[in-house]
Write a structure and sequence with these properties.
- Pfam families: Peptidase_M78.
- InterPro entries: IrrE_HExxH, Rad_response_metalloprotease.
- This is IrrE N-terminal-like domain-containing protein.
- By secondary structure, the protein is α+β, with helices and mostly antiparallel strands.
- Among the domains are: 211 residues, no CATH class; 57 residues, no CATH class; 64 residues, no CATH class.
- It is 46% helix and 14% strand.
- It has 19 helices and 14 strands.
- The strands form four sheets. Strands 1, 2, 3, 4 and 7 form a five-stranded antiparallel sheet that branches. A four-stranded mixed sheet has the order 11-13-12-14, with helices on both faces.
- α9 packs antiparallel against α10, α16 runs antiparallel to α17 and α17 packs across α18.
- The longest helix has 19 residues.
Length: 491
Amino acid sequence: MAEPQVLNDPLVIGGADGLRCVLSWLDDYGTNGPVARTWGDLQLWVRDTLIWGNPAGNGGRPQGIRWSWIDLLEYLAIAWPYLEEEETHPIDFATLFEAPKHLGELRGRARLRWRSLPEEQVEEEEEQLDDFLLAHDLGQALKGAYPPSLLLLRHGHQMRAATREKEWALRYADSMSTLEALSERIAYRLSDLDDTRSKLALERWQARDQLQTLSRLEAATGLDQETLEQVWPGAITDANVPYRLKAAARMAGPYLTEDALRALLAELAQVPAGAARGLSHPRRLAAEVMATHEADEPYVQGYRLAGYLREKLNLGDDRADPEGLLGSWQVTVKDIHLPTEALDAIAVLSQEHQPMVFINTRGLRSRFPTGRRVSLAHELCHLLIDTQGALPAVEVLGGRVPQDVEKRANAFAAELLLPRSRAREITRKQLESADTEETRQAAIEAALDDLAQRFEVSHETAAWQIRNSTVLPEAQADSLQPYLKSLWQPS
């Protein structure tokens, strides 16, 4: 290569609060083909973390990866529709304990899972995961270089960006805008070249949005085309694939029969247009709480939000009425009868449609009065705080929803219906005269009965709230275990 190297003024693409690229073109490659024309130094940042590059590589200043960036253009031209449409990874982890805590742990957790699976299933899942990463890991974009992984996966209005160590929730629109602006800069460098590779790269980039409607829907939902044609309400055309239906099919599809999914989508297709005017004030209050507790764990956010709401509603020690609360905020609650136990409730969160909560009268929990109440409280949380984030259109309780979002809503529902302070107070009172293990167990069971009846919650919800109130030492808390029957938990 020719010396000295000539570093042009850097281009800064993207903002400091999201995905950001710093690109400097180099004029020292020695030829004039597509490799030389797109040869440069690229820093890739997520907020204040340098993902691609060396933070002290050039006289103490950050230095990026030196490469020919036609590779990145070619990669993004193919990956683009999947970055736009896909919102879930392909591995269906059996339990919350098995699942990755964030996207960057996906491959490592999958490998742990595969240790106990049949070889044939491992091979199938490994192939699915490889295909997924080809479209979502920018670290696979370069041919012959091995930059650090950066996984990108859309969650509604958010873009989850993750390295192996950390995950960030960025704005989806801003992230895609940054990638598009970077790609346009690369494409411009190739625009006056006449070689086959440059022309093909430009053609593919310009055609990045031309994936057929059915193929896009398949990517968005994770369902095969034959299933989609059976369950979709009406013809599959560009005009008939609204985001709320795509999101519902993605969340619920893997757990439902075709009949149940068809019935669910038919209900959602009929939701009338409207505006959530009654939610405007409570959403502003909720936004204040979330801003104050932005750095907290999701379950802490849920607890804080529920406590604040109980205070503003002057509930005191009273039993909360989530259905009445939704009605006062002009949210329609409708019973439906889906042929499945797998789903308890579905909330319509879209800003363009009348806010609604559908309760499945055959749901595993929602068929019972206490389960109905906790389902409504859960959906109330989503209506308050998630429409600008991971769930802009719908939420399916019992479906495939981001864990952090569900943990927050579970904690909110539990605290709204039964505050931990009351669980602590009543349990402590019951334990006052208990001086043997037998009487302590009887006192705990009496507290569970009292809380369940007084606040109209299940014994499981009461048990979780007693446990999380820390009124019991760890050794005594184990006595609650028989009541913690499922993976549903507020924290």
